[in-house]
Design goal:
The chain has 14 helices and 23 strands. With 471 residues, the protein is α/β, with parallel strands linked by helices. The strands form 6 sheets. Strands 1, 2, 3, 4, 5, 6 and 18 form a 7-stranded mixed beta sheet that branches. Strand 8, helix 6 and strand 9 form a beta-alpha-beta unit. It is globular. This is Mercuric reductase MerA. Its EC number is 1.16.1.1.
Length: 471
C-alpha cells in the first residue's frame, strides 16, 4: 500500500474541488486531488455546459419560425436533433481541457483517478494508496435524485446524466419535475421539434417569485409546452417508446421519460463515520466556515447542503482557501448568491423574494418595479416580455427578482449590491450606454426614487424657494 502525505487533499474534481486544488497549489501548498469519474463534474459533463449549449441550438431552431412583426417570414425547418447533440458534445470538448487531468498535473497537483474513502479522521484510501493530509476538502457534488415511484425501475428513463447522449429526437417527452433542469429541457426539446409534457407534483419554479414565474409559464405554454401542476406521480408503466405516467390528475402518455425532480448529495462512498464527520440526507453538516465536525475536514458545494449551483461551489472554494492556507477567519454567506433559469425568457433571483421580504421586514419593505416594455432596447429588439422587482429596506436592496431577456446577466448588478451592502443610490448613479438592456437596472432604481422626488411636497417647496430667491 503506497502512502502519501500532503498539505491539502481534495476529494472531487468538479467546479469547487478544482478551484481549491488550483488555488492551493499555485500558492505553494502540496495538493492531492481525487476524482473517480469525470473531471469537471456535473456542470461540465451533464449540467450547466451541455444544457446551455442545447438551449442555444434550440434558440436558433426557434428563430426559423420567423417574426411577422419584424417582417421576417418563417424559414425552412432543417432541425437535426442528432447534430444539435453533436454541437453539445463539441462544446464540452472545447471546455474540458481547462478541467483536465493534464492541466492539473501541469500545475503541480498530484492527480489520482480513483474514488476515496475515509479510513480514519486523517486518512483517505484511494485504491492502493493511503493519503494523509493536514486539511481535507470534500467536494463530491450531487447526482440526480430518482424517487421510488412504483413501476419506474421497469421503464426506461433519462436523467440529466443521460439525456445528452440521446441522438434520436423524442416524439413526445414526458418530464417529471418542474424545476430549472426540467423546464430548461422542456423548452429546448419543444423548440427542437418534440412534443413536451411537464408533470409537477406541486408548482413549477417553486423557489422563485410566483408573479414572475407566472409570466414565464405563460410564455412556455404559448410555445406549446403542456405544463401540469399539482400532479403527483403515482406510478409509471410501459416500455421504450410508449411510457405512461399515472398521476393524481390523470394519465399522461409519451415516448420518452426524463426524471428531473431534484438532486441527492454524493456521500455514499466516503465512509464518513470513520472520520467522525456528521451528516444527514441533505449533506455534510458544516459551520459558517464550511468546517465539518472533524475540524480537519471541510465540505463545499452541493455536498455541504448549500444552494446547489456551480458558482456556489466556486465561492465556497475561496472561503476555505482563506481559512486553510492563511489561517484567516472566513465565513460563507448565502444572502448574496444569485441563481438563474436559462429559459427564454430567463428567470433570475438574488436575496429575498417579495414574499420572504414582506415576512421579514413587514411595513418597512418597499418594492420597486419596472416593466421590460418600458425599455427602449427591449422594444427595439421585440423582447418586451419581462419584469424586474427590487425589494428595498431603508434605501438598500435586500433582494431582486427578474424575468425577461438576459435576466441572468441583469441579476449580476444586484448580486454585487447585496455583497457590498450598496444603496439604491449607487445603482441610480450609474451611467450606461443607450440603448442597452442593462438600463433596466437603472430604470428600476429610478422607479424607487421617483415618488420621493416628484411627489414630495418638501421637494416642491425647496425647488420653489430656489427659483424665487437664488439668481
Amino acid at each position: 500500500m503506497e502512502r502519501i502525505e500532503t498539505d491539502v487533499l481534495v476529494i472531487g474534481g468538479g467546479s469547487g474541488g478544482l478551484s481549491v486544488a488550483a488555488g492551493a497549489v499555485q500558492m505553494g501548498a502540496r495538493v492531492v486531488l481525487l476524482e473517480g469519474h469525470k473531471m469537471g463534474g456535473d456542470c461540465l459533463n451533464y449540467g450547466c455546459v451541455p444544457s446551455k449549449a442545447l438551449l442555444a441550438a434550440a434558440a436558433v431552431a426557434h428563430g426559423q419560425g420567423g417574426n411577422a412583426a419584424m417582417g421576417v417570414g418563417p424559414g425552412k425547418n432543417t432541425v437535426s436533433y442528432g447534430k444539435a447533440k453533436d454541437f453539445v458534445a463539441s462544446v464540452i470538448d472545447q471546455i474540458a481541457p481547462h478541467d483536465s487531468v493534464e492541466r492539473f498535473d501541469g500545475l503541480g497537483v498530484t492527480m489520482i483517478e480513483d474514488y476515496g474513502r475515509f479510513i480514519s479522521p486523517t486518512e483517505v484510501q484511494a485504491g492502493e494508496r493511503v493519503i494523509t493530509a493536514r486539511r481535507i476538502v470534500i467536494a463530491t457534488g450531487s447526482s440526480p435524485f430518482v424517487p421510488p415511484i412504483p413501476g419506474l425501475s421497469d421503464v426506461p428513463y433519462y436523467t440529466n446524466e443521460t439525456i445528452f447522449d440521446l441522438r434520436a429526437r423524442p416524439d413526445h417527452l414526458l418530464i417529471i419535475g418542474g424545476g430549472p433542469i426540467g423546464m430548461e429541457m422542456a423548452q429546448a426539446h419543444r423548440r427542437l421539434g418534440s412534443k413536451v409534457t411537464v408533470i409537477e407534483g406541486q408548482q413549477v419554479f417553486a423557489k422563485d417569485d410566483p408573479e414572475l414565474a407566472a409570466i414565464l409559464v405563460l410564455k412556455l405554454r404559448d410555445e406549446g409546452i403542456e405544463i401540469v401542476e399539482g400532479a403527483l406521480a403515482q406510478s409509471v408503466s410501459g416500455t421504450g417508446g410508449d411510457v405512461t405516467v399515472s398521476t393524481s390528475r390523470g394519465e399522461f402518455h409519451g415516448t420518452h421519460l426524463l426524471m428531473a425532480v431534484g438532486r441527492k448529495v454524493n456521500i455514499e462512498r466516503l465512509n464518513l463515520e470513520a472520520a467522525g464527520i456528521a451528516f444527514d440526507r441533505s449533506g455534510i453538516k458544516v459551520d459558517a466556515g464550511l468546517r465539518s465536525s472533524n475540524r480537519r475536514v471541510y465540505a463545499i458545494g452541493d455536498v455541504a447542503g448549500a444552494l446547489q449551483f456551480t458558482h456556489v461551489a466556486g465561492y465556497h472554494a475561496g472561503v476555505v482557501i482563506r481559512s486553510m492556507l492563511f489561517g484567516l477567519p472566513a465565513k460563507a454567506k448565502s444572502d448574496h448568491i444569485p441563481w438563474a433559469t436559462y429559459t427564454d425568457p430567463e428567470l433570475a433571483q438574488v436575496g429575498l423574494t417579495e414574499a420572504h421580504a414582506r415576512e421579514k421586514y413587514g411595513a418597512r419593505l418597499e418594492v420597486a418595479r419596472f416593466d421590460f416594455g418600458g425599455s427602449d432596447r427591449a422594444i427595439a429588439t421585440g423582447k418586451t416580455t419581462g419584469l424586474i422587482k427590487v425589494m428595498v429596506v431603508k434605501g438598500r436592496p435586500v433582494g431582486a427578482s427578474i424575468v425577461g431577456a438576459g435576466a441572468g446577466e441583469l441579476i449580476g448588478i444586484w448580486a454585487m449590491a447585496l455583497a457590498n451592502n450598496l444603496k439604491m443610490s449607487a445603482i441610480a448613479a450609474m451611467v450606461l450606454p443607450y440603448p442597452t438592456m442593462g438600463e433596466i437596472n437603472k430604470r428600476v432604481a429610478g422607479a424607487y426614487f421617483s415618488p420621493k422626488l416628484f411627489e414630495s411636497p418638501f421637494i416642491r417647496r425647496v425647488v420653489g424657494l430656489v427659483q424665487r430667491f437664488i439668481p
